[in-house]
From TrEMBL:
Protein's recorded name: Binding-protein-dependent transport systems inner membrane component
Species for this entry: Sinorhizobium medicae (strain WSM419) (Ensifer medicae)
Coiled coil location: none
Biological processes per GO annotation: transmembrane transport
Keywords, in A-Z order: Cell membrane, Membrane, Transmembrane, Transmembrane helix, Transport
Length: 263
């Protein structure tokens, strides 16, 4: 019995180690490459210099100020985009003719990178928070609504007919068939839209922002502060990993797995 219980923990530990190994390899390559290839430090600063920059920016509060500004914009754009996209996506998908008509259009807009909207956003809203927020919400909206429509369309039609034959109301069908049946794809859309939104945020801040992690990274380029550029890249990646682990994994556990859609 004890051996059986210990197996899941051993598997998790093995999976965690497997996930850490590539980062260790990258860190080793980063530490050794400048010396082996003769790359000057102003182009590729050492890990020690980046760590020292991180310590100094944490001490003066500048790094946290940029991170907080980015997270606030991401949260606002994420909520705005999904609050519109998911209900609208469900409404569109419940009408098969409408969903088949609009799916190519939604796929077209989903394929447009968030950064492509930045010039138009600057014309509409000027340089600043409004442009960045528009780019984030727009990117998240089209990613989520497309996944929602596809999720509903993949539900077998026999489930709808079976529900109707048992006297289910429209709300019963939505709550017991549509939402659980499309939840896997909706969750994929939520996760994908967050990733797209995060990249759109960084790109928007680089071009149209006045603060944030993207703005911090681009501003450092003007002064050839490669250590801040690399620090910004690391912060962007770490924040995404944390958001994915703290937000989407628990959501998946209490929704998709609870309804038995995946093991």
């Amino acid at each position: 019995m004890i051996a059986r219980r210990s197996r899941p923990f051993m598997r998790r530990g093995s999976a965690a180690l497997t996930g850490i190994l590539p980062f260790i390899a990258l860190f080793a390559a980063w530490a050794l490459l400048p010396a082996l290839a003769g790359i000057p430090e102003f182009k590729l600063p050492s890990p020690g210099k980046v760590l020292n920059t991180f310590t100094n920016m944490m001490a003066d509060g500048s790094l946290m100020a940029h991170v907080w500004a980015s997270l606030q914009r991401l949260a606002a754009g994420y909520l705005l985009g999904n609050l519109i996209a998911i209900p609208l996506g469900l409404a569109i998908a419940l009408n098969r003719a409408v969903s088949e008509t609009l799916t190519p259009v939604l796929s077209f807009f989903q394929s447009i990178a968030g950064i492509a909207w930045v010039p138009l956003a600057i014309i509409w809203f000027g340089v600043g928070k409004g442009s960045v927020l528009f780019v984030i919400a727009n990117t998240i909206f089209f990613a989520s609504i497309y996944s929602t429509v596809i999720g509903v369309r993949t539900i077998p039609r026999v489930l709808f007919r079976a529900s109707l034959s048992h006297g289910a109301s429209r709300w019963d069908i939505i709550s017991n068939v549509v939402i659980p049946g499309a939840m896997v794809q909706i969750l994929v859309g939520l996760r994908t839209s967050m990733a797209y939104g995060w990249r759109a945020l960084v790109a928007g801040e680089m071009i149209a922002g006045t603060d944030g992690v993207g703005y911090m990274t681009l501003e450092a380029v003007q002064w050839y502060q490669a250590e801040i550029v690399i620090l910004g890249m690391i912060v962007i990646g770490v924040l995404w990993l944390l958001m994915d682990a703290l937000l989407f994994t628990p959501i998946e556990r209490v929704t998709v797995r609870r309804w038995g859609m995946v093991r």
